[in-house]
């Protein structure tokens, strides 16, 4: 198929994509390469259509309501609700240690951001600004994202992304304080926000990032982040998802690890109607290490998926995954994790563990850890469990006078703390533990 | 009267009857030892008193300080001052020992209408107890019983008991599997707790613990009933004769 079709897109377009094709407009004053990339994206989305539950990677997520009631990426007619945004921001009670970049309704919000004060060899700013100031990075972001051809929503994102952030750290820089990225949705209109970001950490550099997502009302957030770690670079990225109960949150992270790089990708999914957090990691250099830890809590009718794909393409890599899930009410949680070890990738050490807790009769958790190993000299393992609250432990707590509800909360929190406590940065760890405790206080079993 | 058990019958959820008419009265400030062979119903009695699920009381009554014990759920019993030291303390990953114990103490204080202790106030209470019990404070920062040795788990039970200061402490084979040092810690904890308004029930298989804690009364539990009661001399007699003789000659039961 040709890269660019004449518009409107051919009649082969999947019908559910039609509303999105109808609002596609590439007449904006953007560079030719970006317009080209957008056309390519919309064409690809039209071909792929929405993923169905027959698609293995999407089988645990119900996207029917999104398909039936499209959330379009049109520019809102009214100004974003600034007061609501400030309330949301305050409600996150962020550690506020380092720089902060806020994205409101899919666009950079300078009035609630604080992005100066970083060292000179760090470029940090909105994707929209990078298009002019750092076109080489923007081109990479628009044209070279690995998921764009395979993932329908990555292709849709390529067509419509309005903003995001770029963090580019030169070699040999250590950022002491965590950088905060805040994604807000003011709930002014039901629509979709497509954001696209890139994090590049130079050789031997180190950074910590906290990305938080929250909002009001009905919206669809479609977020893509590319991570490039140069040789010996270290990135710890923690994600906190506290989206609104009607929100759809689909996020994809693509990370490339060069020799001896260290990547810690942590995700804490605490709220949102439909949440999917996907991380793909490619080991491109020897001796790199990656930790993909996370936890989700779902209740009511919420859905959350954590999806990990780790590709060991070279020898001497190490992967650790610990994902914990709790589902209550009529909620549905799922973990799908795949670790691939290529034929020449000897001496890889990869372990994956998914542990889950179901509260009540109607909650469901699916877990599907998967190893695909083509090398013969590797150390790999995976494990999964789905269980209920330990009655013996519950009785132990109650036998000390702790009321039943409080005892249950202590056990649930104790279960979920393990992956959070593994976060190295104390301020970040304590922050996420506080958010977790706050979520569990309101958990309706 | 601290505890009055009358004609207590209890069975497991599979229908097996374990307690077949236990009668026992424990007065204020008294220390009672309940001894008996394996399978006699000792741990079932402790579990039923503490309110563990999986047991059904089919007959009889238990009155605790004038109130019907069975009218209270397990956590309410604990807040009213009943404490069970577990034979097999439970490991609870992710729950910090200090945090757990402060929640327990504060639940009790709320129940009594007293203000809750903050972390600093609680730490002062704890430090003092640790000193008198000769327990290291490394236990505090670990998850409840996780990775504890057998002896550490039992010490942790005694430490919890010391902090919670129960009215009625029931120790279910706390001495089993302990070396002599740990046994001394347990004994020191129990003896330190003896007070006019407090009673202690020691459930044990062996006389050894009673060399360190002198009981006011000793009872023999056999096949779900108390078959003999006496003073501390009864424990010595049991040690000499073994439990077998009591089982073979139940008619002796009333003679002591």
Q: In a nutshell, what does this entry contain?
A:
With 445 residues, chain A is α/β, with parallel strands linked by helices.
Provide the CATH topology of chain B: Rossmann fold
Work out the helicity level of chain A. Answer: 10-25%
The SSE string of chain B, one letter per element, is EEEHEEHEEHHEHEHEEEHH
Average pLDDT, all residues of chain B: 90
Characterization of this structure:
- The complex is a heterodimer of chains A (445) and B (256).
- Chain A is 23% helix and 37% strand.
- By secondary structure, chain A is of the alpha/beta class.
- Chain A has one domain.
- The longest helix of chain A is centred in the last third of the chain and has 18 residues, at 404-421.
- Chain B has 256 residues and is an alpha/beta fold.
- Chain B is built from 8 helices and 12 strands.
- Chain B starts with a strand and ends in an 8-residue tail after the last helix.
- The longest helix of chain B is centred in the middle third of the chain and has 15 residues, at 97-111.
- In chain B, helix 5 (150-164) runs parallel beside helix 6.
Name the descriptors:
heterodimer, A: 445 residues, alpha/beta, 10-stranded mixed sheet, 9-stranded mixed sheet, 10 helices, 37% strand, globular, disordered N terminus, B: 256 residues, Rossmann fold, 6-stranded mixed sheet, 4-stranded antiparallel sheet, 12 strands, 34% helix, disordered C terminus
């Amino acid at each position: 198929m040709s890269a660019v079709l004449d518009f409107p897109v051919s009649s082969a377009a999947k019908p559910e994509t039609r509303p999105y094709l109808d609002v596609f407009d590439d007449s904006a004053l953007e560079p030719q390469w970006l317009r080209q990339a957008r056309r390519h994206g919309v064409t690809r989305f039209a071909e792929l259509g929405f993923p169905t539950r027959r698609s293995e990677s999407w089988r645990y997520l119900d996207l029917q309501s999104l398909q039936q009631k499209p959330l379009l990426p049109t520019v809102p007619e009214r100004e974003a609700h600034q007061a609501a945004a400030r309330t949301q921001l305050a409600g996150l009670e962020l550690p506020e240690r380092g720089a902060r970049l806020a994205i409101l309704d899919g666009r950079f919000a300078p009035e609630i951001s604080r992005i100066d004060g970083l060292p000179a060899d760090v470029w940090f700013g909105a994707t929209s600004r990078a298009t002019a100031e750092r076109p080489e990075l923007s081109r990479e972001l628009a044209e070279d994202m690995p998921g764009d051809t395979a993932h329908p929503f990555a292709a849709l994102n390529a067509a419509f992304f309005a903003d995001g952030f770029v963090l580019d750290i030169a070699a040999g820089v250590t950022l002491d304080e965590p950088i905060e990225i805040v994604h807000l949705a003011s709930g002014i209109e039901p629509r979709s926000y497509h954001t696209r970001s890139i994090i590049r950490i130079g050789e031997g550099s180190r950074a910590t990032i906290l990305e938080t997502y929250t909002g009001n009302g009905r919206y669809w957030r479609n977020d893509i982040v590319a991570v490039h770690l140069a040789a010996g670079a270290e990135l710890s990225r923690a994600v906190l998802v506290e989206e609104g109960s009607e929100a759809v949150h689909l996020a994809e992270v693509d990370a490339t690890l060069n020799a001896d790089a260290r990547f810690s990708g942590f995700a804490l999914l605490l709220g949102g109607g439909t949440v999917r957090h996907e991380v793909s990691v490619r080991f491109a250099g020897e001796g790199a290490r990656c930790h993909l830890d996370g936890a989700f809590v779902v209740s009511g009718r919420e859905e959350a998926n954590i999806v990990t794909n780790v590709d060991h393409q070279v020898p001497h890599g190490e992967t650790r995954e610990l994902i914990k899930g709790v589902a209550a009410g009529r909620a549905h949680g799922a973990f799908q994790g795949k670790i691939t070890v290529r034929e020449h990738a000897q001496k890889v050490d990869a372990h994956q563990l998914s542990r889950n807790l179901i509260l009540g009769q109607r909650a469901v958790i699916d877990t599907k850890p998967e190893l695909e190993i083509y090398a013969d000299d590797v150390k790999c393992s995976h494990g999964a469990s789905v269980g209920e609250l330990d009655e013996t432990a519950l009785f132990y707590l109650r036998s000390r006078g702790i009321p039943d509800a409080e005892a249950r909360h202590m056990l649930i929190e104790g279960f979920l703390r393990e992956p959070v406590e593994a976060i190295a940065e104390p301020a970040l760890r304590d922050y996420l533990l506080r958010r977790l405790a706050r979520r569990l206080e309101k958990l309706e079993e | 009267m601290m505890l009055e058990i009358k004609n207590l019958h209890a069975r497991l959820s599979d229908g097996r009857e374990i307690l077949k008419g236990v009668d026992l009265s424990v007065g204020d400030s008294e220390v009672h030892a309940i001894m008996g062979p394996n399978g006699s119903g000792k741990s079932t009695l402790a579990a039923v008193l503490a309110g563990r699920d999986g047991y059904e009381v089919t007959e009889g009554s238990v009155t605790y300080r004038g109130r019907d014990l069975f009218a209270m759920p397990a956590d309410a019993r604990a807040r009213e001052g009943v404490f069970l030291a577990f034979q097999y303390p439970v490991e609870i990953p992710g729950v910090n020992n200090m945090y757990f114990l402060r929640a327990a103490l504060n639940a009790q204080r709320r129940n009594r209408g007293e203000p809750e202790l903050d972390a600093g106030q609680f730490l002062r209470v704890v430090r003092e107890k640790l000193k008198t019990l000769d327990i290291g404070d490394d236990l505090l920062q670990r998850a409840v019983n996780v990775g504890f040795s057998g002896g550490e788990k039992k010490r942790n039970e005694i430490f919890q008991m010391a902090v919670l200061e129960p009215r009625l402490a029931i120790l279910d084979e706390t001495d089993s599997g302990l070396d002599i040092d740990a046994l001394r810690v347990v004994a020191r904890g129990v003896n330190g707790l003896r007070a006019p308004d407090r009673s202690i029930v020691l459930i044990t298989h062996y006389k050894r613990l009673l060399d360190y804690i002198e009981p006011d009364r000793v009872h023999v539990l056999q096949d779900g009933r108390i078959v003999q009661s006496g003073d501390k001399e009864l424990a010595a007699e049991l040690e000499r004769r073994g439990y077998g003789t009591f089982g073979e000659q139940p008619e002796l039961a009333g003679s002591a």
